[in-house]
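User: Please predict the structure of the protein below. I'd like the answer in C-alpha cell form so I can feed it into my own downstream comparison script.

Assistant: Understood. Taking the following sequence of 141 residues as input:
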Amino acid sequence: MTPRRFNIENAILNRYFPRKFRFVDLDSEDAYLDVGVKTQSGKVYRLKITLAQDYPNSMPEVYITYPLPLYNKKGKKLSGANHDMHTLGNDGDNIQVCHYKSENWHNDVTLYRVILKARIWLEAYEGHLRTGKKIDNFLTS
C-alpha cells in the first residue's frame, strides 16, 4: 500500500472505527488490518483483512478471528467453502467470508467498505443462528 493510500485508509478508519483497528506488519507479505466490529445485537467480532503488497489493486481476504470457532445453528463448526453460507475457506480456525465478487473489485474500494460488507455477513450469520436459515437467504433480495 502506498503511503498516500495508507493515509486515506487510516483517516477513514479513524473516523468510523476509532481505537478499534490496527495495521499489522505493513511492510511485509503478511500485512493485514485487525479490526473489531459490533453487530446490532451487541456482539463483538474481530476481523483480519489481508493486505497484499499491491493492495488496493488486489482484493483483500477477510477472516473472522474472534470468537473462535464459529458454529452454525446445528452446533457444527463452520469450515471450508460453502456457497449457501458465503464462506470461502479457512486459515486455521479463522473462517474466510465472502465480501466482494472478484469481478466487482476495483482499486477505489476502501477498507471501510470491506468492513461494512463483512459486517453485513456477520448480521446474516446472526440471523442464521436465530432462524437456521442459510446466510444466503439474508444476503439475496
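That's the full C-alpha cell string. The chain has three helices and seven strands.
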